[in-house]
């Protein structure tokens, strides 16, 4: 089930990943995108299995970043694909009933993702974020506005999720521009009370 408030995991070790994910689940987060890049595949897979177990009692949606085989193996709820990853068409053959999201940075990217029938599009980055090493061109609010204006009403039916260094103060602006939701990481990690942050986000998007 689609959720407009999406959490992208981070952590350099399995312990850090699991700690952060359990913390945000405890705080009420219902959508987890498991992203664990710089590690061995065996460690990533084992950690993903543990994340799946964490999500079950919370009835949280689990999306796997980039790895369709892993999403299939652990019966995750879906996968999120970068522009250089496996095509959405190929992923759909492997995961016919799961959620498939895709990254976009330009109008052309967005239209490509819509043609591919992505269930949602992660559009960004809004601004610089240390969470991702290889950032695409920054969009800023003006970039979002220009891109959304260029889309037809039919194209805008696919949910567009803002991503990249988003703060709480950005959320009402992004909503007014027409973004369907947000993806966050540090916003929850650095908050003294992530539960309060999630509640505030829900006033805008749920």
Short description:
This protein is an alpha/beta fold and 206 residues long.
Notes on the protein architecture:
- The longest helix has 18 residues.
- The chain has a single domain, classed as TIM Barrel, CATH 3.20.20.
- By secondary structure, it is an alpha/beta fold.
- An eight-stranded parallel barrel has the order 1-2-3-4-5-6-7-8, surrounded by six helices.
- It is globular.
- 42% of the residues lie in helices and 17% in strands.
Observed structural traits:
single chain, 206 residues, TIM Barrel, eight-stranded parallel beta barrel, 9 helices, 17% strand
User: Radius of gyration, rounded?
Assistant: 16 Å
Could you report the average pLDDT, rounded to the nearest whole number? 95
| Coarse shape | globular
Strand order of the largest sheet: 1-2-3-4-5-6-7-8
List the helices and strands and how they pair.
Elements (H helix, E strand, L loop, with lengths): L4 E4 L5 H13 L4 E4 L6 H18 L2 E5 L2 H6 L4 E4 L6 H7 L4 E6 L2 H9 L4 E4 L16 H11 L9 E4 L7 H7 L3 E4 L1 H4 L4 H12 L1
Parallel strand pairs: 1-2, 1-8, 2-3, 3-4, 4-5, 5-6, 6-7, 7-8
């Amino acid at each position: 089930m689609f959720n407009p408030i999406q959490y992208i995991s981070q952590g350099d070790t399995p312990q850090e990943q699991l700690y952060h994910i359990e913390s945000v689940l405890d705080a009420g987060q219902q959508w987890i995108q498991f992203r664990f890049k710089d590690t061995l595949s065996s460690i990533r897979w084992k950690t993903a299995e543990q994340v799946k177990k964490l999500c079950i009692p919370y009835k949280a949606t689990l999306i796997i970043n980039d790895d369709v085989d892993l999403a299939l193996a652990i019966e995750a709820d879906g996968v999120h694909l970068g522009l250089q990853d496996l095509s959405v068409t190929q992923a759909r053959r492997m995961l016919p009933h799961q959620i498939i999201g895709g990254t976009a940075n330009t109008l052309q990217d967005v239209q490509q993702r819509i043609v591919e029938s992505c269930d949602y599009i992660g559009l960004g980055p809004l601004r610089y974020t240390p969470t991702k090493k290889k950032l695409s061109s920054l969009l800023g609010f003006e970039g979002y506005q220009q891109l959304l204006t260029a889309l037809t009403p039919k194209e805008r039916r696919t949910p567009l999720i803002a991503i990249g260094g988003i703060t709480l103060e950005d959320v009402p602006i992004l909503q007014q521009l027409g973004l369907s939701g947000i993806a966050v990481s540090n916003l929850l990690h650095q908050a003294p009370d992530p539960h309060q942050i999630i509640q505030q986000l829900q006033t805008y998007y749920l």
